[in-house]
Amino acid sequence: QDLLDLMVAEEESLKERLLKSIALCRKELNALCEELHLDPVEAEKGTTILERENSLRAHVEVLLKERRDRKQELKTLQDQDRDLCDILCVTPFCIDSDIVPSLEDLDRYRGHLAFLTSEKARGAEGQQEFLSCKRQIIVLMEELDHTPDTSFERDVVCEDEEAFCLSVDNIAALQNLLQQ
């Protein structure tokens, strides 16, 4: 009888631990679903307590991996965005890096980076235009015995070609300077 009572007590204790674990997994699963912008995961009906606990634990692991993957992709996209924005002199994509981005947010970010990449490719043409205008401006300034007066003129004539921002406004200002 004592052995049987001990076995029943152990089973009751195990059941309590499993129910607590299920409650914790359910709470964590709901939080992850909300954070990842997913529909809540429904508990499987007709399963044992142990199977339910294992299933919930597996779902939590899958969603934790999904969260890590999204955060990592966001970090990668932000690094690419920073590099492209520095080159193109534009404002970085506005996204909160403290929260886990939704799949739609990541898609919009990828689209933004694709656009910036195409702009960078067009910027290579702008680089050639800049170099051509710069040479012409330097020759004309020497012929006119003119020293650069404004900071923009100094940037064009004296600064390294790589440091010059090839924005649409700067290319237009460069062409205007050449005309002057």
From TrEMBL:
<dbReference type="InterPro" id="IPR007145">
    <property type="entry name" value="MAP65_Ase1_PRC1"/>
</dbReference>
<dbReference type="GO" id="GO:0005737">
    <property type="term" value="C:cytoplasm"/>
</dbReference>
<dbReference type="GO" id="GO:0008017">
    <property type="term" value="F:microtubule binding"/>
</dbReference>
<dbReference type="GO" id="GO:0051256">
    <property type="term" value="P:mitotic spindle midzone assembly"/>
</dbReference>
<dbReference type="Pfam" id="PF03999">
    <property type="entry name" value="MAP65_ASE1"/>
</dbReference>
<protein>
    <submittedName>
        <fullName>PRC1 regulator</fullName>
    </submittedName>
</protein>
<dbReference type="GO" id="GO:1990023">
    <property type="term" value="C:mitotic spindle midzone"/>
</dbReference>
